[in-house]
Amino acid sequence: MGSYILVVDNNPMNLEFISYLLTAKGYAVKTAASVDLGLDLMRKSTPCLIISDLFLPHRGGFDFLKQIKEVTAWKDIPFVMISATSYLKSDVERAQQLGANKFIFRPIEPQRLLNEIEPYLEGCSSQRSH
Fold this sequence. Notes:
Structural class: alpha/beta
Distance between the termini: 19 Å
Radius of gyration: 13 Å
């Protein structure tokens, strides 16, 4: 696995929040505002974890997740879906069927977000020395 966490969200405040939270814990983070930009980053280097918003412009989180799971080299990367606008059980089920490891609803407190994604951070190299 790679040594960074990819965060894909078209809301700059969401990107800043998650990026700040993870970098403060010593993780390397790359951000993208769209599926296409996220895929471009992945072609350059593979992340150890993907956190993606469900609703993105042009192509949404479901499409992104599906594309990730179709690429052999990427299919085992943990994928966490986040949404503030969908509270439908069917969206959670669809995300799970496509291969998402977790579906998190906003608003979310920083420590709770870290607790929710912690199981998937084991493959991520922290920049901190232990």
